[in-house]
Automatic annotation (TrEMBL), chains A, B:
<comment type="similarity">
    <text>Belongs to the ROK (NagC/XylR) family.</text>
</comment>
<dbReference type="InterPro" id="IPR043129">
    <property type="entry name" value="ATPase_NBD"/>
</dbReference>
<dbReference type="Pfam" id="PF00480">
    <property type="entry name" value="ROK"/>
</dbReference>
<dbReference type="InterPro" id="IPR000600">
    <property type="entry name" value="ROK"/>
</dbReference>
<protein>
    <submittedName>
        <fullName>ROK family protein</fullName>
    </submittedName>
</protein>
Amino acid sequence: MNAATMSAGAQAVGIDVGGTSVKGVLLSSDGSLLAAHRLPTPSPDPTGEGVVETVAQVRDALTQDRQLPVGVALPGVVDEDSGMAVYSVNLGWRDVPMLEELTKRLGTEVALSHDVRAGGVAEARTGAAAGRAGVVAFVPVGTGVAAAVLIDGKPLVAGGYAGEIGQLLITHGEFQGQRLEEVASARATALRAGVASAREVASAAARGSAVSQQVWNETITVLADGLAGLSVTVAPTVIVIGGGLALAGRQLIVPLGEELERRLPGLRTPELMPAAHGDAAAAVGAALLGLEQRA
Amino acid sequence: MNAATMSAGAQAVGIDVGGTSVKGVLLSSDGSLLAAHRLPTPSPDPTGEGVVETVAQVRDALTQDRQLPVGVALPGVVDEDSGMAVYSVNLGWRDVPMLEELTKRLGTEVALSHDVRAGGVAEARTGAAAGRAGVVAFVPVGTGVAAAVLIDGKPLVAGGYAGEIGQLLITHGEFQGQRLEEVASARATALRAGVASAREVASAAARGSAVSQQVWNETITVLADGLAGLSVTVAPTVIVIGGGLALAGRQLIVPLGEELERRLPGLRTPELMPAAHGDAAAAVGAALLGLEQRA
């Protein structure tokens, strides 16, 4: 979609700054998607100026109403409390005051967030975990692995460092010395099997390919270790799995749930669910946070 | 101490219901300890009546002021939000409405809490982590291993299931199939070395005992795995280690910190500190929660 809309029902813009594209959505007051627009990410962009300009272009393509609240989700280490983009390998920035820069350029209220936490907000409010009580976790498994932990509906920030489960070093077995996401991400899973996507690995495994079955099992085992550490710490009632890995649906959720349950003897096992918002989660969540900030 | 005090400065009573004794403290307005009293725990006590009566006796021994707020910390699974003692193996109870029963018997405001979370409150407010910003974790390593996670000073409850890191199944290596606390608790450490306490294991290891060195290293390695999973999830700035294991001081903290840092490549490593309140932590924290509830 590429729409310049002046819709009476339009309530907020959400923009997700990704490694390759800046994705924007226009949400109505009932949370439904009115329009979407995307542009390539200027990268690297150490000062953040290119990203700020691209975000403004995406907003302008989505709506002529310059007063709509805008939520912006950023990758890397983001500290929502201070409004700082602390660090991003891909974009090459360190300690950029993005909230201030975005507010100045956009001329309206901006809600700054982290892409994974924004995605968690979308899945918890209007996605797979909508209406669920208790702590909710959102774990996108794509080019990397990370987690958002939502407590009473609010994402845990911890200075921007919460949820980095993909960075955990594996200390035992075959993958010793690698980080969790170097084995269990969708990208690493596809690479190990020599195919283009994790979904292809799952399909080949279902058709009986021994190599794909082994790769798929390795990913599930390593991912279950990470989810088990998260589960004993914050005891989520639901873990929503997103990213490319979740496209395998039940072929992921069922064995992953079994491995997780085995690691939590006598404890309450979180329910696992595939994500509902797909790759729009962070933009939708950013828009919801924009709405809430104004409310 | 065994004191019946009517002190003008007395502000709150804190009572920790442990597996073997019910420990009470009387705190002044500045958080200092005015008196302590303990009685044996009636156990098992499936209805909770024996515990309620013992708590009342401890309170009465500490103060004649029946209007002082009382904080009570319980073991097992406790849901502070509903006021229920959900489950305890040692006491044999399941779904006992302890907040209601204690309030009726004591005739004053009662703040119900969980022993580990109450200990975390004590260490975060007036103990090892006093004045520290960010998420704080408290990990008592005694007969078992558990964690309290304090976010903006408030313990995460999650229906009573948060922080059960000691229950995590070990899936690799020599201790495969055991739970974390079956290897890394102070009790398991002493048992494996064939001595009476974890502190003795540390002393023997320092004197060059090969068996004790191996046992000590095993405990540190397994505990570091648990702390790493907690750290990537909630990113604490400080982890306070309590229980019998922490009595080893630097002999625990230094190698445990190294093992933890190794597991968190490129991430912010939490600072490790030994606990300040010793085995009074839960009672002190319960009293602080009693004070805050009234405030």
